[in-house]
Amino acid sequence: MSANGLFVLASARGYLSVVSVLGSLYPVVTLLAAYALLGERISRVQRSAVALALAGVAVVAAVRWAAGKRLCHPPDGRHHNGREER
């Protein structure tokens, strides 16, 4: 119940693309919790899946960061207030 509430809150306050990607990581968290708390073994396929999921999050974060940099510093050197950047 609280996870759904937090998802709705994050969706309302942030970018849905980022929230949905991070929300889709729940199987990774479950796998890592089972490993840490219950001593479950992690297969080679599961390790590969975790690596791919984390790489996907890194790609989304990098794209989001690059988009934010472009918005903050337009290529013409002017800020949103029209003044030249020094």
Quick rundown:
The chain has 86 residues and is an all-alpha fold. Helices cover 72% and strands 0% of the residues.
Helix content: over 70%
Number of helices: 4
- Mean pLDDT, rounded to whole units? 78
Distance between the termini: 50 Å
Order of helices and strands: HHHH
Q: What is the total number of structural domains?
A: 1
Rg over CA atoms: 19 Å
Are there runs of 5+ residues with pLDDT below 50, and where? none
Which word captures the global form? flat
Q: Look at the helices and sheets and give the structural class.
A: mainly alpha
Oligomeric state as shown: single chain
Strand content: under 5%
Walkthrough of the structure:
With 86 residues, the chain is an all-alpha fold. It has one domain (2-72). It contains 4 helices and no strands. Helix 1 (2-13) packs antiparallel against helix 2 (16-23). The radius of gyration is 19 Å and the shape is flat.
Protein traits:
mainly alpha; flat
What is the element layout, followed by pairings?
Layout: H1 2-13, H2 16-23, H3 26-38, H4 44-72
Helix pairs in contact: 1-2, 2-4
